[in-house]
Design a protein that fits this description.
Helix content: 25-40%
Structural class: alpha/beta
CATH class of the largest domain: Alpha Beta
Distance between the termini: 40 Å
Largest sheet: 14 strands, mixed
Order of helices and strands: HHHEEEEHEHEEHEEHEHHEEHEHEHHH
Number of domains: 2
CATH superfamily of the largest domain: Zn peptidases
Radius of gyration: 22 Å
Number of helices: 14
Strand content: 15-25%
Length: 453
């Protein structure tokens, strides 16, 4: 299996390109899908791909349902009365409608399916944790929790950052892959506000008035792409997403993934004579509100020409790599890790979910993995690793040494995948369908996203 030249690895240790690109991207601030910051981010990534040595750079536009934040407030009455309306206490969740509702507050704990099944939520405003118990066996995404709340007849949705220190209410889309906003208003509140609401519930019945002001309008979104390597029919996709949420800088989610795509392209461009397969670098737009950029690309290209996809999301805060998805691609990553003498964790198809840019490809049978950082090996200096989707997703939560090592590891694996002797079969769609846990199928049906029915 081919890999990077030793001189290229040495170059990766010396060249500040990737970190400087990340500084430039995070300096934009708000890169919300369909807004001005995302457009500026697309230009930064296009220029970054060019400076990395990639060719044929382009920005492709498409339309999405846009969302603009205005204000949110939560008024509590009961044994204790209070009003939460400050930005460090409460934020509206993208895809929420502009609405005001009242109802009894009920807690559904961590919001796993069993919690919803055992709680009467109809007509009530639900309070749900942003976390999932580590013993549960899979991550239950915010969007799945929202969908279960709306399908159960809840009047509103309050999502709180349990276990995350500081005044950092979480944001994140709820109107996922819709052409219109979700049906019930939704907000994120800080850990402290969530804990207060639980204390209020322990004293007696609590009623809340939840109000959100926002705009839901059509908007223009953008994908950025360029290529390195020979001009072959078959190609490998190396992908991240340029958009982030409006309340933060999007350093971890997903500035890190986008600039890693550029760095991998740069390292591969230094080894172009070793590549047997074209590598296409893509920074998708519109990932956060509904995977719009990756769906747009998938629907407008011949997937038979895609040898495999290497996606990067939730990465950069630890140099220990976790790779989830197709067995044949994981095996190449495992071999690359052995050659480099570094640890790696790989997980099977059952670890794949419908909330990252891997999904539009793997559900169609494209061999694909998503590369993440291992949270349990994140250095103490980062404190909490759950800063994504908050005001605190800033550059200080990342380290250039971790980013450098991740770039080397992933570029080495991509070079191996590009080898003509490396066979990567497509994944039977039935295998993907069967690997997805039944509660995720249930969520897809509830959300009208059932991909195979």
């Amino acid at each position: 299996m081919s890999g990077l030249a030793e001189s290229t690895i040495g170059n990766a240790y010396r060249e500040p390109f990737m970190w400087e690109l990340l500084e430039e991207l995070t300096e934009i601030g708000n890169r919300m899908a369909g807004q001005e910051g995302e457009a500026r981010g697309a230009e930064v990534m296009k220029d970054g791909f060019v400076r990395a040595g990639a060719r044929d750079p382009q920005i492709n536009e498409f339309e999405i349902p846009g969302w603009w934040r205005e204000s949110a407030a939560l008024e509590v009455t009961g044994p204790t009365a209070n009003v939460f309306d400050r930005s460090y206490e409460i934020v509206a969740l993208p895809g929420s409608p502009a609405a005001s509702v009242s109802g009894e507050l009920v807690s559904v704990g961590d919001g796993v399916p069993e919690d919803f099944d055992s709680t009467d939520i109809e007509g009530n405003v639900v309070l749900v944790s942003a976390q999932t118990p580590r013993t549960y066996g899979r991550w239950v995404n915010r969007i799945e929790k929202y969908t279960r709340a709306e399908s159960g007849g809840a009047a509103g949705f309050i999502f709180y950052n349990r276990g995350v220190d500081g005044g950092v209410p979480p944001t994140g889309a709820v109107g996922f892959s819709r052409n219109a906003p979700g049906p019930i208003p939704a907000v994120g509140v800080s850990n402290e506000v969530g804990q207060r609401l639980i204390r209020y519930l322990e004293k007696g019945e609590v009623t809340v008035d939840l109000s959100i002001s926002c705009r839901n309008e059509r908007a223009t979104c953008r994908n950025v792409e360029a290529v390195v390597g020979p001009d072959t029919e078959s190609e490998i996709l190396v992908t991240g997403h340029v958009d982030s949420h409006d309340i933060g800088d999007g350093a971890r989610d997903n500035g890190a993934g986008s600039v890693l795509a550029a760095e991998i392209g740069r390292l591969l461009a230094l080894n172009e004579d070793r590549l047997d397969t074209k590598v296409r670098l893509i920074s998708f737009g519109g990932e956060e509100p509904g995977l719009y950029g990756s769906y747009y690309w998938q629907e407008n290209h011949d997937l038979d020409a895609v040898k495999c996809q290497v996606n990067m999301d939730g990465i950069g805060y630890s140099r220990d790599l976790m790779v989830n998805g197709s067995e044949s691609v994981r095996e190449v990553f495992e071999e690359s890790a052995r050659r480099l003498g570094v640890p790696i964790e790989t997980n099977p198809l059952s670890s794949v979910g419908p909330f990252t840019d891997q999904w539009p490809f793997i559900k169609e049978g494209v061999a694909s993995v998503t590369c993440r950082s291992r949270e349990d090996s994140a250095p103490v200096r980062y404190g909490n690793t759950e800063w994504a989707h908050t005001h605190a997703d800033t550059l200080d939560k990342l380290d250039w040494r971790d980013m450098r090592d991740l770039g080397i590891q992933i570029a080495t694996a991509v070079a191996g995948l590009a080898d003509a002797e490396t066979e990567i079969p497509s994944v039977p769609v039935s295998a993907v369908r069967d690997a997805v846990p039944e509660p995720v199928h249930e969520y897809l049906r509830l959300a009208g996203r059932s991909e195979w029915e």
